[in-house]
């Protein structure tokens, strides 16, 4: 079975740099294809276990990444007001059904007394670290806000996430378009006026 050829897998590991065990994924995908009544050896499916293994290595890469690496750079801008990056698009995977949920994340924080801020792109990278794992939306939201608090030491932080869950659209209750909104707020942004300002900036489109 050439799909499980060790050299092929080694090459894929090297290419992705991921410790995700692609050999096991390939075996499992072949098994799933057989279980649904497909022929894993038909032409169109021959490469599928390998493709899925490679895709999973990418989709679950966040399991092997650390927020501290992403948020390690900061600069002194002496800015002590709200910084908000909104409409960060992302894809994650529902841990209940292993199908995607996707939407946008909005991340805001009030820098520490010294006014140290991180690069704006780092906030988008932080979303990826936690989105590329088997997830639920609530945990994704709190993991992001808690990582911001731990690594940026801001006066406060807010994360709002809006998603459509494929497990609610393509199967099960079948309600495409239904959106789930979650939020998590820490520190000074919990105060009513600041929270209202952040929320109106996030949701005012
Ligand atoms: N709270 C929360 N629930 C989620 C998330 N993603 C999926 N779910 C829900 O997880 C639940 C799993 O319910 P179960 O009854 O165990 O599984 P199920 O029979 O497949 O449920 P249905 O989707 O209703 O068919 C469903 O209600 C999903 O809508 C998420 O991010 N957060
Ligand atoms: Zn689901």
UniProtKB/TrEMBL annotation:
Keyword Transcription regulation: no
Coiled coil: none
Superkingdom per UniProt: Bacteria
Annotated EC: 3.5.4.16
Any GO CC annotation of this UniProt entry: cytoplasm
GO biological process: one-carbon metabolic process; tetrahydrobiopterin biosynthetic process; tetrahydrofolate biosynthetic process
Record-annotated GTP cyclohydrolase I domain positions: 25-202
Pfam families per UniProt: GTP_cyclohydroI (PF01227)
Molecular function via GO: GTP binding; GTP cyclohydrolase I activity; zinc ion binding
Catalytic activity: GTP + H2O = 7,8-dihydroneopterin 3'-triphosphate + formate + H(+)
UniProtKB keywords: GTP-binding, Hydrolase, Metal-binding, Nucleotide-binding, One-carbon metabolism, Zinc
Binding site for Zn(2+): 94, 97, 167
Pathway: Cofactor biosynthesis; 7,8-dihydroneopterin triphosphate biosynthesis; 7,8-dihydroneopterin triphosphate from GTP: step 1/1
Subunit note: Homopolymer.
Family: Belongs to the GTP cyclohydrolase I family.
PANTHER family (alphabetical): GTP CYCLOHYDROLASE 1 (PTHR11109:SF7), GTP CYCLOHYDROLASE I (PTHR11109)
Descriptive protein name: GTP cyclohydrolase 1
The organism's taxonomic lineage, starting at the top: Bacteria, Bacillati, Actinomycetota, Actinomycetes, Micrococcales
Gene that specifies this protein: folE
